[in-house]
Design goal:
Elements lengths: L1 H10 L6 E9 L6 E5 L6 E2 L2 E2 L7 H13 L1 E2 L4 E11 L5 E12 L2 E2 L11 E4 L1 H7 L3 H10 L13
Parallel strand pairs: 1-7
Antiparallel strand pairs: 1-2, 1-4, 2-3, 2-9, 5-8, 6-7
Length: 157
């Protein structure tokens, strides 16, 4: 789906999307997904952020999972991607492509860097999909409902 939207945007003269990484934090025992609230609106989202110098995209996704949700995991596996428009303080939005990684949760900390700014909660994948605003992210989450959590074999970050 990303390819079609990108091609249309280029034809219409839109600027190239900026890149972010996202982490779908998954409980290996239940297959549930850990969702967090956004700082601005309080809606349910996945941990995500900008790529980090000196880190692979998978490593950046693991770092975002730690900072925003308190998740520790040894590895992440790329799941797919989606596009969204990120609202800016100046009143306009920029196009963003998010590369999404499955992060099998090893430990969940009681304290983490953004704890005071966010809530977190486990949801079955289909329910998590119903909570997000981005249709392409919802489709990725729905797809997890068909994949048993232990079947995910993450590559080293």
């Amino acid at each position: 789906m990303i390819g079609l939207r990108q091609r249309l945007a280029r034809l219409l003269g839109a600027r190239r999307p900026r890149l972010q990484v996202g982490a779908v934090c998954r409980d290996a025992a239940t297959g549930d997904v850990l969702m967090i609230t956004s700082r601005g609106t309080g809606r349910w989202i996945i941990p995500k952020g900008w790529p980090m110098p000196g880190r692979t995209l998978a490593q950046a996704a693991l770092q975002e999972a730690w900072e925003e949700a308190g998740v520790r995991a040894p590895a992440a596996q790329e799941l797919g991607g989606y596009l969204y428009d990120k609202a800016q303080d100046e009143g306009f939005a920029i196009p963003v492509e998010v590369r999404v990684f499955v992060v099998p949760v090893e430990t969940l900390a009681d304290q983490w860097p953004e704890q005071a700014q966010r809530s977190r909660r486990w949801f079955p994948p289909a329910q998590a999909a119903a909570l997000v605003a981005e249709p392409e992210l919802a489709a990725l989450l729905k797809g997890l409902a068909r994949v048993p959590a232990p079947a995910l074999r993450p590559a080293r970050a």
